[in-house]
Amino acid sequence: MILWLQLILFCLLFTAMVRYSVRDGAINGLYFYPKAVQERAYEIGLTDRETVKKQRKRFMTLFYIVMLSALVLIIAVWNHVSDFKTAYLQALLFLEVMNIYDGVVIDKLWVGHSKFRILKGTEDIPFVQTWAQVVKKRSFLALIWVFGAAIVAGLVILLAKVI
Question: What is the pLDDT of residue 103?
Answer without folding.
Answer: 97
